[in-house]
Each structure stands twice: as structure tokens, then as C-alpha cells.
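User: hey, got a sec? need Dna-J like membrane chaperone protein folded
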Amino acid sequence: MARNEKSRWGGIVIGPVIMLAAMAALWCNETRYDYYKAAAKTTEVAAPADAKPGTNFSLTGSMDPGLTYSGKYVDSFTGYLTVARSAEVYCWDRDKDDDRVRWSKKWMSSVENNSRNNDIHQQCSSTSLHPPEYRVGELPVDSQLIEFVDAYTHISPSSLTLSQAGTNLRLQPQSEYFYLSKGQSDNLGDERVRYTGIPVPAVATYFGQSASGRGVADQSHRRTGFINQIIQDSGNLHYIVAGDRKTALASMKSHIQRLKWIVRAIGTAAVVIGTLILGSTFVGFLFHIPVIGPIAEMGVFLVALLIGLPLALLTILSGYLASHPFILAAILTGIVAIIYWIRKRGQASQQILKQDLDQQYGHQLSYEEMKDLEFLELAQLAFSDAKLDTGEAKVLSQWARKHGWDKTKCDAMIQRAKENRGTETEAESNDDHLQNLIRLSMADGSLSNYEVRTIRKVSKQIGYDDKTIREMIDRVRRGIATPTPA
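Assistant: Yep! Here you go:
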């Protein structure tokens, strides 16, 4: 099998995988653990001893600006709650599509596995660094599973001292990075390390669970799995946030809202991209077909948008409603109420129409009588040109079979309609028959789709357009039409 054919078959798999993974991420994002709401429900205490063991609480206190802990490539960090070490390597990136392979050199978080990177090895690694314990006021806080919402700031290499390990690697500070040069003329294999950290605030608020006078993570809502890791949903409540309780809660609310919108944007884009990959694969099969190929190629992105966006939005909406049951219940209640109101209004209109028809025909009409009269009006419309063509006869026969009539009754009713049409006065018109037909159709409960289609078929054949028919139905529904004498 040719390589480009393999690539196309791969697209049939990769496209749906990306779409499903993105939709799963969007769903998980909408149903994620809301650490802001959990934090807002915690009990505020003034001292660690006031927190009941096993309960969630918050405590505001001062922090040590001289908080110090060691790093792997540098001796220590001072004045940071946590430090992120980002290591990159300069190597070859291979980008392949159906037509060709494109090579480029770029900074990457790890060495891409390809033929040009066989001799490149990365020595520096990325990680997060933090002390073994924090203190918020008099409260000791476990650093395990700790999380933050405050912004990271760049740490200048000039403010740091290399450790023995960093010196042995021959790291050199340059601008905002520590560089590791491999001595190649094209810089291939060179590495760089960048540090960012969250400064220790003067005052911070802790949100978490109390255990033996310490702050530990509440893992009762813990989330696991690859998707939850990608969207940063641990399900834990174990946060240190700068400021008093009110300020900290505002920061947490802003952080989770921002995080949700980022995932929504990226997830929606991924659904569209997955749809585009799948669509492009089929375009590849059609590419060599004259006329169809170029059209399909031009329209694939538009189709991806038309399919991908509604899928993503539907997933977001479904996840949002699933995580907000009260809103879902309110919407369902509203829908039920609207349906009930429409039904009651329809029943009231039906009763009024039925009373008018009883008065018009001089007695209380049974269901069978109304169906007979409905058929007569339909047939008299068909006889407006004094003859019954094949199409009109077919419509009348279908109507009769649907209502359980045999051919004898159908023929007799058609003959009766023909005789009535021949003896009617000049004042009677097609408008009168159409209006009465609609009234009879609506008086037995509601105007069904089949009845509307039947009325339209016959009415169009004698010159009525859709607009006129809709206006007539609306007039009857609103009670504007005038009853036709029996």
C-alpha cells in the first residue's frame, strides 16, 4: 500500500479520535470539580485549633518571605511558593502531510523521535519544585498535592546560583535562560532551562481539610484519568492563595472561569480540526475526480465548521446542564409548562370551533360526521374545475384508506361532492370550502401534518400558494374566519 494511502486511512482513525477526545475534554470541563464553590463553602477559622478534624476550613495568615528550598541545577530558591522548571532542546521537527515531508529546527520540550535526531540526547528535565511544608500563620500545610491560582513570574538566572550539578552540566546564564551548549555549528542539541515562580505573599489564605492540626488535601472529589490531567482538574481542595479570604475567593473564581474558557476554546478548535482531518481524508479519495475533487477540497473547511462547531457547542451545553441540575430542571419545567399551555389553548380553540360547527349544521356533530364533511369539502375543492384529475383522485383515495373507508364509501362520497359542487350557489367559492375544510380538520383535536399536507396538495392544484394557505389556517386558528352556511 502506498504511503499516501496509508496516511489517508490513518486520517480516518486520527480525525474521529481527535474529535472524541476533544468532546470528552469539553464534557469533563463543564462537569469539573468547582474548587471555587468548594472553597466558598469552607468554615473560616482564626486558628488551626478551631478547625474540626476531617472538615474543610479556611485560614488567613502571614507567610515567611524568606521561604527557601533547594533546586536540582541551582542551589536554592528563596521567596517563592513554587517554582516551575521548563527545559527545552533544539532539535529537528518532522511535519508530514499527503504531499511531502517538511523539516525544521525548533526548541521543543523533548527530542522528537525521527531519523535526524538519532544523535541528540536531552540532559535537562522539566519539573515543579516546592518546599516539604508551608506555614500560613501558625498552620502547617502539607506541600503534597498543593495547588495555586496566582500568576507565575519569571526568575532571572542572574539571581540564582548554580549547584554542583548545574556546574557539571556547564549551564551558562544568558538573558532569561540557563543555556547548555553542545558546540554544534547549527546549535543542534543545545538545551535551555527557564525558571518561573509564584512569589510568597505577605498574607495568604489556605483552603483545605484539617487533619491533626495540619492542612491537607480534601480528596473526596478526586479526579483521575488522562483527560482530567489535560484540563487540570484534580478534584482536590488544597490551595494557598494570596490575600485575605475575600480576595482569595475572587482570585479562585477568576482562575476557574478563565481555565474553563481556555478549555472551551481549545476543545472546540480540536473538534473542528478532527472533523477537518476526517473530511480531508475523504477529499483525498475524491481529489482525482474531475469537477467533484476541486469543489470538495474548497468546501471541506466550511463543512468542518458546520459539523464541528455544533458538535462542540452541543457537548458544552449538555455538560453545563448536567453539572447544573437546577437549571436543567427549570428548563424542563418551562418546556412542560409551555406544552401544557399550548395544549390547553388548543383544547379551548377546539371547543369553540366545535360549537360553531354544531351551530352551523344545526345539531351536535359526531366524529364520523365531521370526517364525512371534511372529505366532502376536500373533494369539492378538487371538483372546482368540474373534473377530477389523476393526482386529485389519488389524494382522495389515500385520505379514505387512512381513515378506514372502503372503495364503495369513497366513491359514493366523491359522487356526493360532485353533485353538491354542481348545485352550489354563486356566492359559494373555493375560499369558503378551504376555510370550512380547515375548521373541520381542526375541530377534532388538532391540525395534523398529514391533514396539512393533504390540504396543500389539493389547494395548490387549484391555484392556492403556501402563503395563502398559511394565512387561512392562521385566520381560522384566531377565530377571524366567518362560518359558511350549511
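Quick note: The mean pLDDT is 86. Let me know if you need anything else on Dna-J like membrane chaperone protein.
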